[in-house]
Amino acid sequence: MSTLPETNPRLAIVLMICATAFIAATTLLAKALGTGTLGEPLHPLQITHARFLFAALTLGTAALIMRPKFGTVNVKLHMVRTLCGAAGVTLMFASAAYIPLSDATAISFLNPVFAMIFAIFLLGEKVGIVRWSAAGIAMIGALILLRPGSGTIAPGALLALGAALILGLEIIFIKRLSKREAPFQILLVNNAIGLVIATLAVIFVWQAPTMMQWLALAGVGSLMAAAQTCFLNSLARADASFVVPFSYGTLLFATLYDAAIFGVIPTSVSLLGAGIIVAGAALLAWRETRLAKA
Fold first, then answer.
1. What CA–CA distance (Å, rounded) separates 25 from 12?
2. CA–CA gap between residue 37 and residue 102 (Å, rounded)
3. Would you tell me the crossing angle of helices 183-202 and 44-66 to the nearest 10 degrees?
4. In the chain, where does DSSP find H-type helix?
5. How do residues 199-223 score in pLDDT, each as one tens digit?
6. How confident is the model over 235-245, as pLDDT tens digits?
7. Which residues of the chain have pLDDT under 50?
8. What is the pLDDT of residue 45?
9. CA 191 – CA 250 distance, rounded (Å)
10. CA-CA distance, 257 to 253, in Å (whole number)?
11. Do the Cβ atoms of 196 and 85 come closer than 8 Å?
């Protein structure tokens, strides 16, 4: 734990692809739990509770084995970050029950765009023409997926948009925490606080899951913990500009899972909107990396 991982681009790619597959799988399981595929539909808050419960158990077990050294914990900052994360994940899980996974995943890629906007007001960052252009491109893709010209906007799309907005705010608090605390400490504290918050919230909507639902709920939390671990270790082994583009594989896996399990094939409109969002988000990620190196 005291030494930094060695640079290994190939391993970084593998870890990032694994992370995207795990993230898409958690959304798939959330859709199955929220649509009644495995029994009576569960409330998104109950799925979020499982996400924190089983992730906390997974990370807690890892902490007992590795026994990492912890520094000072900024409880207030962790609380705000975790509240944003829990709210964003809950909205994301809810959206997956109403719209194709590919659409929900694509809209979620707007969170770095919202994070950029929040950074202007909360971190005092200056935004140039390239970053604004990237944000504009991504928002055009979102408008296509929202389909405002159809006379009505799908509630699921609005839920996904709300998730992206709140998760964008969470990124701001993650940036602040990352300058003060180690990644594993942030993950462990986040999931511990999130478990407390989610437990209080789930009391009002709890219903007894079936055996299959329990397995799926355990999968949501365990896969999310695995995804977070792979993601952080990938970034530790290669430059962000090199591995971040592979993170958009989440969209590919979400589309494949949705087609294989639920028989949902993305429409040409969905593919167009998703492609534009990914292009804008990728341009923004490239620009952020260039600025970080400057």
1. 20
2. 19
3. 140
4. 9-34, 44-66, 75-96, 101-108, 111-122, 129-146, 155-178, 183-202, 211-237, 240-243, 249-257, 268-293
5. 999 999 999 999 999 999 999 999 9
6. 778 776 677 77
7. 1-2
8. 97
9. 22
10. 6
11. no
